[in-house]
Amino acid sequence: MVTLKQVAARAGVSIKTVSRIVNDDAAVNAKTREQVQRHLQSLNYIPNNAARQMRGGASTIFGLMTDAVATTPYSVDIVRGAQAALRENQQTLLIASSDGEPDREAELWRMFRAHRVAGVVYAAMFHRSHDVGQPAFDKSIVLANCFASYNDRPSIIPDDEMGGYTQAKYLLQRGHRRIGIVTLIPELEATRLRGQGMRRAFAEAGVAFDDALEVRGVHGALGSEFLVAYDVTREILSRPNRPTAIICGTDQLAMQVYFAAGSLGLTIPDDLSVIGFDDLRLISETLYPQLTTVALPYYEIGRRAVEVMNRPEAETSLSLQKQLVPCLLIERNSCKPLA
Amino acid sequence: MVTLKQVAARAGVSIKTVSRIVNDDAAVNAKTREQVQRHLQSLNYIPNNAARQMRGGASTIFGLMTDAVATTPYSVDIVRGAQAALRENQQTLLIASSDGEPDREAELWRMFRAHRVAGVVYAAMFHRSHDVGQPAFDKSIVLANCFASYNDRPSIIPDDEMGGYTQAKYLLQRGHRRIGIVTLIPELEATRLRGQGMRRAFAEAGVAFDDALEVRGVHGALGSEFLVAYDVTREILSRPNRPTAIICGTDQLAMQVYFAAGSLGLTIPDDLSVIGFDDLRLISETLYPQLTTVALPYYEIGRRAVEVMNRPEAETSLSLQKQLVPCLLIERNSCKPLA
DNA sequence: ACCGCGATTGACAACGTTGTCAAAAAATGA
DNA sequence: TCATTTTTTGACAACGTTGTCAATCGCGGT
Hints:
The structure is a homodimer of 339-residue chains. The first copy, chain A, is α/β, with parallel strands linked by helices and 339 residues long. Helices cover 38% and strands 20% of the residues of chain A. The first copy, chain A, has helices at residues 4-11, 15-22, 30-43, 49-54, 77-87, 102-114, 160-173, 189-205, 229-237, 251-263, 281-284, 298-310; strands at 61-66, 92-97, 119-129, 140-147, 155-158, 179-183, 214-216, 218-219, 226-227, 245-248, 273-278, 292-295, 322-325, 329-330. In chain A, a hairpin with a 6-residue loop joins strand 8 and strand 9. In chain A, helix 7 (160-173) packs parallel to helix 8 (189-205) and helix 9 crosses helix 10. The first copy, chain A, starts with a helix and ends in a 9-residue tail after the last strand. At the A-B interface, helix 4, helix 5, strand 2, helix 6 and helix 10 of A face helix 4, helix 5, strand 2, helix 6 and helix 10 of B. Strand 2 of chain A pairs antiparallel with strand 2 (92-97) of chain B, so a sheet runs across the interface. Chain A binds a DNA duplex (30 and 30 nucleotides) through residues 1, 3-5, 13-17, 19-20, 22-23, 25-29, 32, 47-48, 50-57.
């Protein structure tokens, strides 16, 4: 690799002068600058980051650690969002995934510290609580899609309560009263919050919430789930007074709801309205008819996480500790007002 | 951050001695070692990678550049595979995405060079041809999911020809003769190769290939596609002598085929067999009945890409220039032998 | 010609690490 | 005991960069 020294030798000036030009630093004679620049070009000089960092400058590398569960592929949008924010400042991302193993996670922290990263985003693939056991890490840590149980770290999470509220309100406003709910695993923070939001919407609309219409669409422990949405949906749709709409915990569940409805001869949205969650475009835009859903703002979460990290500590006031990112409605064709 | 110097001062030995212990290098007196180790622990020393690298050691950072189109979320498995391979050697990954912009791509190459990465994996989100315009880069570059048109770089790609062959053979072996094909955009390398593979399977089985049953399931240019699989499938299923099975270019297309079949009162797999491609678990395992499909080996592609990069140049013989990774059949419940 | 000034340039140290080589200490053999 | 070998340790340089400070240059004013 070409070094300043080599360029300096070729150009017949001192190392420092070349350095100045590279960083377009202090005043350099226009003529010299031009000369040297030519050599920089022709030798294809690129500054050595390691040397720069060692010299004491702020590191431009950030770390991103995920607990990577491959079942939620769109969560990588967190990474994309983070990269977009980093890009603005010419920073880069060292990424690694712990696969959920604590040993591996400790190893990664060491690795990040070895690289002297300027900060770390810890991104969970499910909205959940997570305690980063790294008091030794002196740089900023921001949690994305998860939060510390002691609330002692800034964290960026989706506003699931609002998401549930939005789902319910959308259907209630369109006249639906008997609304089925196919939920995710109750252990998930998301499930709890969304249920809360739905109940708030029902209360606001003055409609009684019918617990009997709320069923689990997923069974099994986290990590080894299996879907039962097809069966349970058939069941609630076969009841005497069947619901006119169904709220789903995931677009994936919505997919099974579509099939269950089809198997009973019900057409969406004419006979049944369906609303999803996540906006996995792969599904929501492919379903027929396309799915009205509430988007999980992964991209925005990643973006904000980096933004918070780049902000001077001072600004990271208490009010920013836990940032909620809105979950917005994406209207497509799977819902219909009740005549 | 704690340095060797600080540890040395505390332990009352020279910097070099501490260095030796950190790298459990030459012979060090057992007693000294133990003493110093205690201080290393208590001060929580972690070697500074930048300094190490500057000293001349091989860089442990690799670069991964993607052209990130968010529509194929599972392609991130390439990243996961790469990380798995890296992990074995304590190496790490600097990732960045060009978003398909050449300017941005050039910028990223500079960035990778600035960090003196030991090699770069260029991963495309679609199997396609790509020419890395970086002759200046002296480290190894491996293409993943894409290949150089001059074939001058090692590249790891899915064996799409075999994939298409597998799809067709699977159905032919089960007695299907009239087989519909819902394809991707013809511009894709994958489309061409799979078609080739299918024709090979038909020829081997002595069955005439009916071009009339091959239809496009996607319209529009790359990047702004829209699905028409639902409509075209309904069309071919409405013909007098309708196909008994359908081969899909994607699980996503298969999803629409399911809905098209349902809309005509056809049950899968009893009235129609369907076979997909990609094995997007989000879809293939959620469809009802679950989808038999051919897996795109993204994870393996990523793993091998790093493996090739870590191999000394010598071994990268010509035979390795273009590595095909097999696309294996994942058997589920969407196909049925013809009675 | 001389002085002083600003503009331009360069010598040198330092960042944290490790390879090289020599010095010091300990162990061995006579 | 002393010479010799072996083990253990440390001084120093170097990697590529930039901050500090001093040196040099050009030029206008006296």
